[in-house]
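Sequence in, structure out.
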Amino acid sequence: MTGSPRDAPAAPAHQPGRTGVVLVNHDSADDTVACVESLEASRDLDLDIVVVDNSDSPESADELRTLLGRRAEVISSGGNLGYAGGSNVGIARCLDRGNEYVWLLNPDTRVEPETLPRLLQVFDDVPDCGVVGPRIVHPGEPATIWFDGGVVDVDKHGETRHVHQGRAVDDAPAPRRIEVDYVTGASLLARRTTLETVGPLPEDYFLYFEETDWCRRAHRAGWRVMVDQRARMVHHKRSSGALPSPYHLYYMTRNRYLFVERALGGDPEAALAHLRGKWVRNWRRTVRKAAPEWLGEFDALVERAAQDARAGRDGRNDEVSHVPWPDDQGDAR
């Protein structure tokens, strides 16, 4: 005689994957789905995927659930919490699940089959490495490097740069493992124990510099931060416009000041002067040529960012999204 359904043994509990993957979605459903598809071709499928919908629209998370089905868990953050805020929602879920590693990915990235196995191998080989990232390339003819490691130049008042950025892959030095100042949040893999030691990503920046600050905290906690350039992935950068978006200009200016002041303990006014003398000047020259009618708004936005930084204003600034911006321009993030 067969037993009744209630006599049947309970279904086994879900066994967490070794790696939890966090994708923060903000009006990028197509990219998010494509990134998940690339993860499904990985040679290491011992993973759980968490998509944090960082949209102000309640319908956005429902759309993602329809598109992804059981391929990923979709969590609504309740609104745009910024990169760090959205990532922290996903990180907390991965830690609750018991994942041993947490991998932060931008939706417009595509992993290659060997990306994750090679990154995990760094953790096996280097016990005190707490954070690791891959080489990230822009596709094209030729393919070019976007990220081969992050450098914070203290002598230049906290200027940050990507190693080998813009170089053709075929013309770059042979890929190797290196220690770096930071790993880009576009692809950042961390040990669970590192996250528990260092804590969540700082949310006061809202956008830009949060992973740079966090990696610095990891260094101070005794962890090595590394990039294995032999682990490769692709960044399909959608922001190809000739001009910086208002939010890019504002948050990069404001947060450079806050980063130097809060994370480096340096002179934020010197950092701001350095930024104006190089980064802002170069963008201003571009604006003068491509959209001279926007020059006054450009200057006002830089000054607003500087004033907010001096006043200690951090987090999300909704006023920036209402700044007039020349038509038909992409975000130069």
